[in-house]
Amino acid sequence: MAGAAAGTAELLVMQYLGLALYKPMFEKLEGKVIPSHSSAGLAGICTGITQAVTLVTPLEMIKVRQQTDLMNAAHQRKYRGLVQTASLVVREEGLLALYNGLLATVARQSWGLVVKFSGYIEIKAMFERASGEPDKPLAPWKHMVSGGLTNVLVGVLNSPPDVVKTRMQDDSKPYRTTWDCVKSMIRNEGYSSFFRGSWLRIIRIAPGM
Q1: Phi/psi class of residue 138: alpha, beta or left (left: φ > 0; alpha: ψ in -120 to 50)?
Q2: pTM for this predicted structure
């Protein structure tokens, strides 16, 4: 649990660092090389790729393995902790196994941060325009509402890549590739299967913004 909490804290730090690093770079290009109001979304894509490649995919892989292992009887469980799980996966399946579901994780992180960064800025701008005093700081509750509504959108719109990512990281997965997983879900379970757990995801992430 401590490792998961630390990982969550590091991801939040990476999000803010990514926004601070990438957004100013793209703002200089707005209206010249890239469309106006696109800097936040592009910053989200770059931050999401950075997160997925450096930290998120291995941590998510370990988390999914530990969660699915809980369905086994106590004496049959094989994953006991962060380091032990990572070591066992690498020993049995190779180092690259920690990056199962990388493509889906990149899609989830990038798309989720596009929605989060762009959504927050646009909803906050709506409050500023509605106030009639765009130069006056917004009340704290308006920032809270902007963040909460943004994460509701993230919870719903980011559900498909999150579901695919989780299935690809399960050690009993019957899928050969990410695309094979997507096709199988559509064929056997329908499009609604991509949104399973959306309400729980909203409940988990909306207060965090």
Answers
A1: beta
A2: 0.76
pLDDT tens digits for the chain (209 residues)? 444 444 566 677 788 888 889 999 999 999 889 998 899 999 999 999 999 999 899 999 999 999 888 888 887 889 988 999 999 999 999 999 999 999 999 999 999 999 998 998 889 989 988 887 777 888 889 888 998 899 899 989 999 999 999 899 887 788 889 999 999 999 999 999 999 988 888 887 777 65
Torsion over CA: 174, 179, 185, 187 (sign): negative
Q: Which CATH number fits domain 2-208: 1.50.40.10, 1.10.1760.20, 1.20.1250.20, 1.10.10.10?
A: 1.50.40.10
Helix axes 198-205, 159-169, angle to 10 degrees: 100
Domain boundaries, the chain: 2-208
Residue 193 in contact with residue 163, Cβ under 8 Å?
A: yes
3-state secondary structure of 71: coil
